[in-house]
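Hey, I was hoping to borrow your eyes for a little while. I've been staring at a protein lately and its backbone has me curious. You're getting the sequence in one-letter code plus the fold written as tokens. Would you mind checking whether the tokens look sensible for this chain? Here's the protein in full, and shout if anything looks odd to you:
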Amino acid sequence: MEPSLVTGLYGEVSGLPAPVSAHVSEEQLPEVRTFTVTAEWSQSDLVRGSRLRYSQQWTLIADSNHHKSIRTVLPPGPCAPVAGELVSAISPIRGQRAVVRETSGHQLLEIWNHHGLRKCLNLTALKKHGRVYEDVQFGCLSWSECEKKLLYVAEKNKNTHDGESACRKDRSVYCEDWGEALNNKSVPVIFVLNLQNGSISELQGVPPDVSPGQALWAPGSQSVVFVGWYHEPFRLGLRFCSNRRSAIFKLDLDGNCECVSGSDLSVSCPRLSPDGSTIVYLQGRVFGPHNQCLSLQQLDLRSRKSSTLLEVVNRPLTGEFAGVYEALPPCCWSADSQRVVFSSARRNWKDLYMVDRQSNKVTSLSDSLPDLSKVFGSWKLLTVQKDLMVVCCSSPNTPPTLRVGFLPSAGEAVTWQTLQQPVMTFDLHWTVLDVTPPPEEDNTHYSGLDFGAVLVKPTRRLHETKIPLVVFIHGGPHSQFPAEWNSTTAGLAQLGFAVLMVNYRGSTGFGQDSILSLIGNIGTQDVKDVQRAVLTALQSDITLDPKRLAVIGGSHGGFLSCHLVGQYPEFYRACAARNPVINAATLLGTSDIVDWRYSSVGLQYSYDQIPTAEALAAMLEKSPITHAAQIKAPVLLMLGGKDRRVSPHQGLELYKALKSRASPVRLLWFPEDGHSLSRVDTQADCFLNTVLWLHQHL
């Protein structure tokens, strides 16, 4: 447990690269058909304290007559660093590459072709708009069919039409933005770049109460389709929230705009079919759970009619498809425009699915092995183009692995091929637990729900002693710990700890009923579920040490960690919490998602809500601060000074409560970090301090 060795180990597990996007192109030669797969990877580097991006290419040779079988995979090309790229897109016909790049404080738009750099515009110097949006919420870069125009979203210039005196008067006026991780993103505008004359124009006609994003050209390139988020009466945080009122709009170049989806819904991820006839998109409810099971809708562009391709799944059958919970990849259509491919949570797994538009039948495309003998617990689709799927597979002991396979014909299985094995696999053992709450912990409104957990532990034990157990709880609460590569879990297990990652009721992948069951029951149902999972693990595995237990987690996982050491003070020996919710009542006025503060405790939210004594009492009653006086376990707190979702003053509140009682507490403050504590140096600091804290107190 020498600090330099712990940091070295963390550098090893966190520095393993992961593919983040991919592109497929195809060429027909006289005897063979070749496919080129270009994957972009992300890799953390502790020396630089930053994440690097690089790209790598593979050439696949398929039979000409039966192109759905790969004959040969040629060795990959070298890794080429990708510096400063914010967003990029490849043109549909000639394969030109458009890139928005950040370099020495300027944003450049570059067009690359087979002869090198063809065009470069300094967007910052042109002053047509503010910064280009590169985030997953609004960001986009879309080529027109003729390859003469590009579409993107950028921040509207401030005071473009007011005089000098007005600017002076308004320079301190408050400007709302879209919250956590979207700082300074306030008024997104759609721009069109004409590549022939270099002109940039703002698309007129977007409704004034709507913020546009995720824009793409409609067939014929005479109009665009975009998602518009309603921002009146004020903006609520958008990141990790699939419950914001929004709609799909169609806007022509003359400024005529129409809404083509339903009203009072939440929508995202419009994806155009290769034949240009249909757009699929995700749809959910407004307010309530901030993340939810979504339906998959299809919009016929000719008739303007929408229909449901996949319904919300309330209760999945054992082993069956459990619903859609996450964004669609940029390319998700089969070449014949009849099937849509996507990844989604299923219990403690992340699986790969295809839905057929004729039959609405859903098929799993991952290995056809039974769950307990699967090599990979997680299958994430990066792209499907020319019917070739590119996926990232991993499991708790196998780092991200790049695999490819063709979409199967009816009744066939996919033949998967690995393009890039991870540099190393780890000698760790993992298993999935199914947990059934006892009758007294059943939810009377949503009876019969169960949940799960993933247990990871070192294969070899030191000196035949029992293994200390670290209970790792995800945030959200409506998210998931799939059986995938997690560098924190792998690092802890390499250091001799067992790790139990719990998917309590309310996690994604167990159906909408499970998500709804947690509403109004935070601080009780989820706390009991984690405790039940720990007891189940201890009963099923005698190598775990029931006397050496610790609990860790971030956000709602931090909330539950602090609840557990307060509600079960004799059970846990240590706690480490990142940006935890400590007092929901005092968080009400400072969070960017004020609606969730009400929804989580079972109260309806409306924009004009004014707090009542009853509402604040309900929030306080469900908070860990009410159990602070009972906490005996030493608590490590890690807080981001720029957290907009859970104010760092939440953690400070517990810190003071524990200090005043002479309870052991240590606080790490990261002034430049936000809610996810995602900076590379911050993550390394948090891992080192957590490990030393656990080692000291276990």
